[in-house]
Model the fold of this input.
Amino acid sequence: MSLKPQASSLKPISSLKPLRLVLLGTGGSYANDRRQTACLMLPEAGVVLDAGTALYRAARWVSTPRLDIYLSHAHLDHVVGLSSLYDLVRVEPLERVIVHGDEAKLRGVEEHLFAEPLFPVRPSCEFQPLEAEEPLAGGGHLSHFPLDHPGGSIGFRLDWPGHSLAYVTDTTAAVDAPYVEKIRGVDLLVHECFLPDEAADWAAVTGHSTTTPVGEVARRAQVGRLILVHLDPRSADDDPAQLATARAIFPATDWGVDGLVVEF
Done:
């Protein structure tokens, strides 16, 4: 039996009404007092992007009977929140939860995160390898593309009539990177910006992005707006100089903050 929704059963999302993206977690590597790790949600579409420590916050935003979670990769700060699905499904009237991702990464999550010594009661969810294009509630679709990161990562583009979003995390930003063309012209780009420019050498070693290249990617791709996420957890506060650097290149740039709701 197919796990995918049939296009004829999905109600279209109006091209005139903005969509909402909820930033549940905007930090990278590990949670701190200011930010949980990577997790974004589109409540009206029943879509979650990455399942970091902030996934438990999805409970207050659930508005569909089905939840589709798309994983960029399987590093712990992007998947450990799947352990909170046990309580989420218990509290919310969800009929199905499907976790999508690279097949090898999903297998790693099943075999290791949910290994009996670590998490003996497996949550009620299904695992499904990504197709080249995934249908989304509301008449949209999701496509994905490879990113350069140790162990591998993927980025996502989500399109509906009149609305578009790209999510790029865990990669080293560069204006000549192949993914730039994949995100061209989106209304909203959510891109990691783990380190400031002076840490470029360390960013290259760890497969992360610094401020100036991220701004240049947004400008080259001609996106509508840029939100910076996967931020360094060692920083208790956001650096205004770092944001100023990004805005000097791409003015429509903002920090991602946990709890922020962005319309696009």
User: Anything to note?
Assistant: The helical segments are 76-79, 85-91, 103-113, 179-182, 200-206, 211-221, 240-249. The first helix runs from residue 76 to 79. The radius of gyration is 17 Å.
